[in-house]
Amino acid sequence: MKFGVIGYGYWGPNIVRNLMNMEGVEMLAIADTNAAARKRAHKAYPSVTTTSNASDLINSTEIDAVAVVTPVWTHYDLTKQALEQGKHVFVEKPFTSNSAQGEELIELAERKNLTIMVDHTFLFTPSVVKISELIKEGTLGKLYYYDSTRVNLGLFQHDINVLWDLAPHDLSIMNHLIEATPEAIVATGQGHLNGHEDIAFMTIYFSDKVIAHINVNWLSPVKIRTTLISGEKRMLVWNDLEPDEKVRVYDKGVKITNREGVYDLLVNYRSGDMWAPHLDQAEALHQELSYFVDCLSSGRQPFNDGSSGLRVVKMLEAASESLSKRGSLVYL
Amino acid sequence: MKFGVIGYGYWGPNIVRNLMNMEGVEMLAIADTNAAARKRAHKAYPSVTTTSNASDLINSTEIDAVAVVTPVWTHYDLTKQALEQGKHVFVEKPFTSNSAQGEELIELAERKNLTIMVDHTFLFTPSVVKISELIKEGTLGKLYYYDSTRVNLGLFQHDINVLWDLAPHDLSIMNHLIEATPEAIVATGQGHLNGHEDIAFMTIYFSDKVIAHINVNWLSPVKIRTTLISGEKRMLVWNDLEPDEKVRVYDKGVKITNREGVYDLLVNYRSGDMWAPHLDQAEALHQELSYFVDCLSSGRQPFNDGSSGLRVVKMLEAASESLSKRGSLVYL
Amino acid sequence: MKFGVIGYGYWGPNIVRNLMNMEGVEMLAIADTNAAARKRAHKAYPSVTTTSNASDLINSTEIDAVAVVTPVWTHYDLTKQALEQGKHVFVEKPFTSNSAQGEELIELAERKNLTIMVDHTFLFTPSVVKISELIKEGTLGKLYYYDSTRVNLGLFQHDINVLWDLAPHDLSIMNHLIEATPEAIVATGQGHLNGHEDIAFMTIYFSDKVIAHINVNWLSPVKIRTTLISGEKRMLVWNDLEPDEKVRVYDKGVKITNREGVYDLLVNYRSGDMWAPHLDQAEALHQELSYFVDCLSSGRQPFNDGSSGLRVVKMLEAASESLSKRGSLVYL
Amino acid sequence: MKFGVIGYGYWGPNIVRNLMNMEGVEMLAIADTNAAARKRAHKAYPSVTTTSNASDLINSTEIDAVAVVTPVWTHYDLTKQALEQGKHVFVEKPFTSNSAQGEELIELAERKNLTIMVDHTFLFTPSVVKISELIKEGTLGKLYYYDSTRVNLGLFQHDINVLWDLAPHDLSIMNHLIEATPEAIVATGQGHLNGHEDIAFMTIYFSDKVIAHINVNWLSPVKIRTTLISGEKRMLVWNDLEPDEKVRVYDKGVKITNREGVYDLLVNYRSGDMWAPHLDQAEALHQELSYFVDCLSSGRQPFNDGSSGLRVVKMLEAASESLSKRGSLVYL
Prior knowledge:
Four copies of one chain form a homotetramer.
Chain A: E1 2-6, H1 12-20, E2 26-31, H2 35-44, E3 49-51, H3 54-59, E4 65-68, H4 75-84, E5 88-92, H5 99-112, E6 116-119, H6 126-136, E7 143-153, H7 162-177, E8 182-190, E9 199-206, E10 211-217, E11 219-231, E12 235-239, E13 247-257, E14 266-276, H8 284-298, H9 306-324, E15 330-331
Parallel strand pairs in A: 1-2, 1-4, 2-3, 4-5, 5-6, 7-10
Antiparallel strand pairs in A: 7-11, 8-9, 8-15, 9-10, 11-12, 12-13, 13-14
Helix pairs in contact in A: 4-5, 5-9, 7-9
């Protein structure tokens, strides 16, 4: 499987490094419009061709698959060209700038029998893999909520607000973990510096009384990456900044009994052991790219395919609409 | 100054204990409809009269001031009776179940020349006192946001939802700290057990691009009491669960310069020292009750008076309206 | 069972409070040479007699048992008098100022058929109870070490050094948890202010390659109460300052295999789940005093009896000897 | 300046990476007896010669300086050969297996007018640089103690015990920070698995009542890297595992006044602000290697020279002697 990578800025080097060390993969070319980036790429991988022109990769008949690791507003064009040239595409999140673009690309890929994978790397972290297992096994019981805080100082993006920058992580994780159907979204937020919102909050109403909330912020003095997920049987805290024991499962719960009248209801709190399952040390991006190669070889459709990426874009669109009204309920 | 206390459940004993040890205060009577509560009160303070009937206190000609430490839905009636009998009133937060009640009580107190103080205890904690000083001195610069997370397991209230239970803390603190004017509120949330929302989120839009957010939750496996407050010059984290160094001030900031076009803007991040000011060890409730006694003696109007309590109730009403629509923008 | 308490300073009030609320116990009298202490005692418990003279309690024919909650150097005299007057004695740790005193008191108690309990409160904390269970059940496997850090700012004691002040906690816990025999002690330390050591370190060599270490310090800017206990099968961390999950058990270990030559040995690290058992919320001192009353009623010998207290004193003596030589090995 | 590096195992790659990117430095050759290591080196740096034979580097007339990044027991031979061939030497800590070797190498280097630098990397971390400044400026006042805990699970070394593996970090830092003279050492410890001590404790007595203590352990379930340093005026905690604010300075202290008799002494505790100075993000090894190159160019003697490395070895020897007697006082 022969690869080209478009974009060698912040994230591209990680993709190239993983592809370089992967069985059955050959890294042929790297494209970046920035000369300094090309120079860095060449120094690190003298054997790989570098070019300023993405079309060189896209049109190359040697290349089977292309990774698009560029700003969001370029995803649609580059992915479209690549698909048209018969390339499979691994594209950064968020998939596209709007859902119409996403739908068109999905349709094009289907027609050409090509695979799109959207890089929702977090789905391949040992933490999310473990949480997903716990939920599927029923360890948490019926889900109550997903509440994530993802804040730090910067990095301010120039073309998108903090919601489009940071919330895709949580939206993709949520969609992966929660079986209930997302129904409506409310988003609020404020920009203070460059016009784009730098702090934003998003509530997603699901069926079955499941609710999700996402707090994203580029203006926080401290970095926080904490997600609370509670269910009827157990509750968990995922603190991604913990060096070990990122996921802690609490055998805690609340039961309301003897509900004969609102003032007679008895609330029972259960508080048992806490348990932090051992997590593998695997690098998520390596797992994801291996899975991409596997899917291409086997013809299997990845679960983080274009449709999955599109769902996230639709949620971001709904959030943007709500945000523009300073917080109205927008149905999905 | 002679006091009676109505309600000796969870919080009442703290009020009684503080009044018992206060210079110039005499604790005369405790009322509680619950016999076990009265028994506990009598055992702890044999010299204080106990009664099942709040009217005994309210009508007593010996008593100057009454503390109303009962469920929210009883505040209006008890406060009204006490004011009518010429008593000053120290009443639990939230002040009343709705703003009409609050307005009526304020008007009544004014007419009778009596003082209402609403027990927003947090305003008297060393942390809030210090944060207030820092903001007033300009240490933080122009405020950007207030973002608070106040979650834990329980205690489920029977008569109110989690917003009415926990958000009054943040609403009163916010109103105390933020000079800008609150303009509109969006609230979302979900109930899972007894009909009332057990998890809720609230955004408050202020003038001058200040935004506040409150995350309250009775279904969290862990207790979190963390507030981020950022300004143009500095940012702070108030973690009320830290035994020491509850307030940490970060000399961090972001500056956008050279804004000639959206892609040329330069974002400068500043990251300097962190500093945790020493905080007094004073008990907030003691400070507050002393202040109440001072206000009564001097005839001064407390800053946490009825009007201050009413502002919080109006915000809760707006939040309830928003919540009932699953998150629409409600103007204040 | 009728009690008198001698000493109403820092710890005495906790003992009185617990005895006041205990079934089958009557608190008759409190002795303290300090008038302010007596005043506080009287205010809190008007029904209890207060006296400046410990002999009043000791000689009272009404009193069955005496709690000695005074500085270490007074323990011997007061306990001896009490035993001579036929009283059971609950005495603060450390038991006595030297082992000769302890031996005499034990012998006297035996002769008079009276019970001595030494107040090693930590043995009754839910944490130590749980750790003891885990070790007895074999969860940790063969023990490797016990390593405790117990540091904070102050409280400087006037009559004893930091080792006699803080190490008795760990020594009693260690003796309770470790089955192997303590064989020898090395202690080092330094005084900086009042002549007594304010920082000290103690190593205890046990049989079977078990080793214990205690780090105590009155000059630490932060409070630390962390104990590591490792065994062949599992390891645990007890952090007494954690509000929840004070005890965390790690399924971690090291195995050395294939030891054919020093450079060919293979070290295998095992790293599995972490688990924090739920702990009861019981107040340790209440549990201990109940147990004392039980022992008196049933004639059972408490496990934290005079002999147990004497073992701690002997270790402190050995440590003092080692410390005076700046760290020689002293056999027990 | 042309470099060769001997040893490309765990630490060698970091040295090579830094030298590759350093102005005025040319990396010519890497030696390692392990074929897999050589293969990795070649893959990462195809332009650098690799060899199985360290003598190839040492005898090369092109090479000016050699980095010896091999097990301790090989340091003496390799460094000696390199010095004899006129090479400057950058050698891993601990410098040598015993002090006689160290003395011989220092003498040889002096005779040949060559420079030895011992790789005590921690001295170049932003944390130690800052702490050193704080102490030199008098911020802490007269020093009281240095107390370090450096524990984790593994890595078991085959040729040395935990003291020789982990304590050199603290010994070099201590020697760098503390002006008083180290006078005597007491070490205790125990081995449980492969004969070498896997847990050990070391007290170092200095002049002027300064005391240091080092707790090292390969059998800890959790990683701890915490050092307390207290002085008369201020105290600090250095937690090397904190992502930010590694160094926290506490404006805390104790003063003993009015010392007319042991029971009348007054202990005053002062507790003021905490302050975490901003630290640079510089990579310590890069700083150290730049400094090495600077010293070679300028002919300046590095402060972490052979003599500095020898002081650490002498302390380790004294500790080993004490350890072999299970903890006697050994004078330096």
